[in-house]
Design brief:
The complex is a heterodimer of chains A (about 400) and B (about 210).
Chain A (H helix, E strand, L loop, with lengths): L3 E2 L10 H13 L9 H20 L7 E4 L2 H16 L5 E5 L4 H12 L3 E5 L9 H7 L4 E7 L11 H9 L6 E5 L11 H4 L3 E5 L10 E5 L25 H14 L6 H19 L3 E3 L11 E6 L4 H10 L2 E2 L1 E2 L12 H5 L4 H5 L1 E5 L6 H21 L5
Parallel strand pairs in A: 1-11, 3-4, 3-5, 5-6, 6-7
Antiparallel strand pairs in A: 2-8, 7-8, 9-10, 10-13, 12-13
Helix pairs in contact in A: 1-8, 2-8, 3-4, 9-13, 10-13
Chain B lengths: L4 H8 L12 E7 L4 E9 L6 E9 L2 H14 L4 H5 L3 H7 L8 H21 L10 H8 L3 E2 L4 E2 L6 E7 L2 E6 L8 H12 L7 E5 L1
Classes of the chains: A alpha/beta (about 400), B alpha+beta (about 210).
């Protein structure tokens, strides 16, 4: 049986069309952008087209798009670039305790370098405390950072409201968002939302691994964090992953194909999955909000009395890939920090399972998965001293 | 990192799973908060001291379940003296090895077995309850595994100081600042030592 894959936000299967175009570029269009000669100018215009495709998907201008080696690179270029270029205006930054590690580790890095960081709390559905945000604004606040669609529980932050709060300050407060999870799953219009900097990643939307993009609003100044030969602009030094950029643009075209209505399709799949789990398996707890306030691809659910790594392993042996917030499956053997910040207890964190769906999943796959999951949960509960 | 086939076999089809009614001894160690808990139930022949039946229940990961399964296999039919010689390393070896970060599962399973046996011995006048001392703390620290290499922190010479005064245990451990297991080791030390009635507070400095 073919593996059923629900880890699409860890990484996703490249679309066949992406593989095709990436291969074509590797075989026949492996040039770097250059002026005047035929090969270089051809690639330059291909890159411009790729930028336009990505820019159009977020209502930006193609001059505001930079290609990077992935979402983390985009986050680093944005955060480090903004703070180094603007530290003369202030040294206070704001993010939240449930943000993606790229944001939290950069915040910690700058905290050590003398910046003040306010870490906002989140409520039990994963929404940032906006009252705390209002009270945290200072004269020297220069940057707010958040993760639009939370990477663990899918909570979609109210970016527009956040922008209004930031705009209540006298000075300009830039907003950087990590949109690697939310991009192509919810509509993002950078102008309507007032986003200044945004990272996106190709491999979570059926594009190639190792390529992403940074949106940089016109007028937002970034310091250079990586130095080297300048091929496109000073944020994109060094060699370029042309084949993957071409694949990335193709993945974006496919994800945003209006005929397919992928966002609605994924929402239907995840609604079906959640309903089925909740109707068949007793003693479960959904982590994060319900409905449209949640990114459509994410279902995170805890199963009482049992531990998540065991669920993950048994499902894996049954041919289904899902992930867990259990400490036993984590790098540092720690409970998941997002779950703990949402007020879940250790057991609920250890038993939390995350499904991230894609347009390639099917209702039949979900039927099989929930059938197996019900068996696995029943079996593990029969072994557990907590329910016997 | 991956599990051996033997771990997966014991995880998928564990031996001796369940509860024994009216056991001669039982013990539960670990806690759901830590992500692993194991209960062991023993039936012991009072004349021969042979473990005639043993069962376990597990809340935990694949290696927790597999180690529970293997140590109950190893202890079944043995005298309690023989069963006391089962070590966490021996249990891991029987499973064709465990990943370093999972060695604590083997420690938990073997420790639970030994606690159950100890209870039986005390109840049947075969042993006396140990008097608590600094040595007890050091022995307990030998059950705290540094997940980076799968060895205990005493053997690894990570413990620099052990103090015990007025119910306060002071443990000084040497772990590099950047080490991802720092918090985990500190938590593990606390969890192990806080189970002793004699210890009111555990202070861990790293």
């Amino acid at each position: 049986m073919q593996r059923i894959y629900f880890n699409n936000c860890l990484t996703s299967k490249p679309a066949p069309e992406v593989v095709e175009i990436t291969t074509e570029y590797m075989k026949n269009r492996y040039y770097f952008p250059e002026n005047f000669n035929a090969t270089g100018t051809e690639i330059s215009s291909d890159l411009e087209l790729a930028k336009k495709i990505i820019a159009d998907s977020i209502a930006a201008n193609s001059t505001e798009i930079h290609f990077t080696s992935g979402g983390t690179a985009a986050n680093n270029i944005a955060i480090k670039g903004y703070l180094t270029a603007n530290s003369n205006k202030g040294t206070h930054i704001i993010c939240s305790v449930i943000d993606y590690p790229d944001i939290l580790t950069n915040a910690a890095f700058f905290e050590k370098s003398g910046f003040d960081v306010t870490y906002l709390n989140a409520d039990n559905e994963g929404f940032i405390d906006l009252e705390q945000l209002k009270n945290s604004l200072r004269e020297d606040t220069i940057l707010f950072m958040t993760t639009i669609g939370n990477h663990t529980v899918g909570t979609i932050q109210p970016i527009k409201e956040i922008r209004e709060i930031l705009d209540s300050a006298e000075q300009k407060i830039a907003m950087h968002v990590d949109a690697c999870e939310a991009y192509a799953r919810i509509p993002i219009n950078v102008n309507e939302l007032g986003i200044d900097l945004m990272s996106i990643s190709a491999h979570k939307i059926h594009g190639p691994q190792g390529v992403g993009a940074l949106y940089q609003r016109k007028g937002i100044v970034l310091g250079q964090v990586q130095h080297g030969v300048n091929r496109m602009d000073n944020l994109q030094t060094g060699g370029m992953n042309i084949a993957s950029i071409a694949g990335f643009a193709k993945a974006v075209e496919l994800a945003f194909d209006e005929k397919e209505d992928n966002m609605a399709k994924i929402r239907k799949l995840s609604d079906y999955l959640l309903n089925k789990i909740e109707s068949i398996i007793p003693d479960t707890l959904l982590n994060g909000p319900r409905g449209n306030r949640r990114a459509p691809h994410n279902i995170n659910i805890s199963f009482d009395y049992i531990e998540g790594e065991a669920i993950m392993m048994m499902m894996d042996i049954n041919g289904v890939s899902i992930s867990t917030g259990s400490a036993c499956a984590s790098q540092g053997l720690k409970p998941n920090y997002v779950m703990m910040a949402l007020g879940r207890n250790h057991e609920q964190s250890h038993s939390s399972m995350k499904f991230t769906l894609s347009r390639y999943n099917t209702f039949q796959e979900i039927d099989y998965t929930v059938e197996k999951l019900a068996e696995v949960v029943k079996e593990l509960r029969s072994r557990s001293p907590l329910c016997n | 990192m991956q599990y051996s086939q033997k771990v997966l076999d014991h995880f998928m089809k564990p031996h001796n799973i369940g509860k024994l009614e009216n056991p001669d001894a039982e013990a539960t160690e670990g806690s759901p908060a830590c992500g692993d808990q194991i209960s062991i139930f023993l039936k012991i022949n009072p004349e021969t001291n042979i473990i005639e039946n043993i069962k376990f229940q597990s809340y935990g990961c694949a290696s927790n379940i597999a180690t529970g399964s293997i140590i109950t296999d190893m202890a079944m039919g043995k005298t309690i003296e023989e069963a006391k010689n089962i070590t966490w390393k021996g249990a891991a070896d029987e499973l064709d090895g465990l990943p370093a970060v999972k060695m604590h599962c083997s420690v938990l399973a073997v420790d639970t077995l030994k606690k159950a046996i100890k209870k039986y011995e005390i109840e049947h006048g075969l042993a006396e309850a140990e008097t608590f001392s600094k040595k007890t703390i050091v022995e307990e620290l030998k059950k705290v595994i540094y997940p980076g290499v799968g060895e205990d922190i005493v053997t690894l010479k990570m413990v620099k100081y052990v103090g015990f005064e007025n119910g306060i245990a002071i443990i000084d451990v040497d772990i590099p600042k950047f080490d991802k297991f720092r918090d985990n080791v500190a938590e593990e030390i606390k969890e192990h030592l806080e189970t002793f009635d004699e210890i009111k507070e555990v202070k861990v400095t790293i």
